[in-house]
């Protein structure tokens, strides 16, 4: 995946680095970083961080399933 950095200047996104993309290429942008980019309140953000920490602990303990296995189980339910 190609990752590019841009800065907002006068309401426009300006690339901070050169790119070899062809002229006229359409690029989908996703804003990342900073709490102002989501609509979570402090309680929701705390719950999210707790859930992420729990998931990391489960992974560290080996208490996870392979994504292909999860998808196979979900497909079996839908049948």
Can you characterise this structure?
The protein is of the alpha+beta class. The chain has one domain (6-78). It has 2 helices and 2 strands. It has a two-stranded antiparallel ribbon with strand order 1-2. Strand 1 (6-9) and strand 2 form a beta hairpin. The radius of gyration is 20 Å and the shape is extended. It starts with 5 loop residues before the first strand and ends with a helix. 0% of the residues are buried. The mean pLDDT is 87.
Summarize the structure.
With 79 residues, this protein is α+β, with helices and mostly antiparallel strands.
What keyword list fits this structure?
single chain, 79 residues, alpha+beta, two-stranded antiparallel sheet, 2 strands, extended
Question: How are the SSEs ordered, and which strands pair?
Answer:
Elements: E1 6-9, E2 12-15, H1 42-60, H2 67-78
Antiparallel strand pairs: 1-2
Overall SS class: alpha+beta
Q: Give the uncertain stretches in residue-range form.
A: none
Helicity level: 25-40%
Number of domains: 1
Number of helices: 2
The first-to-last residue Cα distance is: 34 Å
Give a quick account of the main beta sheet: strands, pairing sense, barrel closure: 2 strands, antiparallel
Strand sequence of the main sheet, in spatial order? 1-2
Shape: extended
Total beta-strand segments: 2
**SS strand fraction:** 5-15%
- The average pLDDT score comes to 87
| Computed Rg | 20 Å
**Order of helices and strands, N to C?**
EEHH
């Amino acid at each position: 995946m190609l990752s590019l950095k841009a800065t907002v200047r006068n309401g426009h996104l300006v690339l901070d680095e050169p790119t070899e993309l062809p002229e006229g290429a359409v690029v989908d942008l996703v804003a990342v970083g900073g709490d102002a980019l989501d609509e979570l309140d402090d309680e929701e953000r705390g719950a999210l961080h707790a859930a992420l920490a729990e998931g990391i602990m489960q992974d560290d303990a080996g208490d996870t399933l392979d994504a292909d296995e999860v998808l196979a189980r979900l497909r079996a339910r839908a049948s």
